[in-house]
Amino acid sequence: MKAFFAREQLLHDQSVEFNRGELTAPYESGKRAEMLFSALEAAFPGAARDAAEFPVSHLLDIHDADYIGFLQSAFGEWIAEGRTGDAFPMVWPVHDMRGEKIPNTIVGKISHYSFEISTAITKHSWISARRSAETALSGAQELSRGANMAFSLCRPPGHHAGRGYFGGYCYLNNAGIAAQYLRNEGALRIAILDVDYHHGNGTQQIFYDRDDVFYVSVHADPDTDFPYFLGYADETGAGKGEGFNLNIPLSRGAAWPSYGEALSHALNRIGDYAPDALIVSLGVDTSAGDPLSGFLLTRDDFARMGAAIAALQRQTLFVFEGGYAINDVGGNVVSVLNGFLGAA
Ligand code: OKP
Ligand code: ZN
């Protein structure tokens, strides 16, 4: 197994996050990626590889050009307009307001290109997000060269980032960018299995009207959990993509009996689709004790998850997403990978 990583991903360093009416330390820290990297090095000596660099065209395959331009220039514009600290969005064009407008000054622009308050653009967000996408691309390249599996230690995560917006700690849709890379390399059908606790609204949006990328997600019911406004079971795809989006929301408190059942339903549907490759958006915030989440998976359950995924017998790229119990993240990810490798 190869595990791809890029040190520049650690540079993104948001000062605060707004939670429960207070400013708190951000849940999504560089520390969690560093600790995960150490756990991988210990469990799989010699597996670590530096992510390669890729042309920006791979980002433009998935994201709008104006959004990519905005991500690159936003922090500079924030400073040029005399603001300090991190660039936070603060006003959104909801309901019947003019959501298509792109104001010319930075606060209006940030609001246009985002959807929630916990995620800011910091001095180094662009470089970290770009290297995170390149970490996913490196894993995809490994598959296109014939590897059976790879792990991409992406940070910041990606599955909440849409074609033209950031949020949920995500700026670039790493799994989506990897999926499109494999399509460009000749794969006909890609399945994305998203096992993060939260629904991957961005990945769903990007592929909603396509039948060549099947998005399947098991996640907390958006009625009670972030991102609240997407991820319900009746979202099944549109146009050509009808039937190629599958959401399986579970109630808070779900443990392996109900989770494992949902996962096997998801995997059966993916098996029927017969994808050329599988991308797993691997969030381990489904772990009992995760500070953002309400599922109760254990270390052993994560090994069961890995084994169930391996039973599909597809080339598989694991792309890291969430997981905020930083002392458990490494063990849980290693458990998924060992479960996969033991059963593959
Ligand atoms: C990212 B990923 C909690 C605020 C939560 C955003 C959650 C993003 C989760 N008070 N804000 O899917 O793990
Ligand atoms: Zn999550």
UniProtKB/TrEMBL annotation:
Source taxon at top rank: Bacteria
Residue span(s) of domain Histone deacetylase: 28-338
Necessary cofactors: Zn(2+)
A Pfam family reported for this protein in Swiss-Prot or TrEMBL: Hist_deacetyl
Family statement: Belongs to the histone deacetylase family.
Organism: Hyphococcus aureus
Keyword annotations of the record: Hydrolase, Metal-binding, Zinc
Name used for this protein in its record: Histone deacetylase family protein
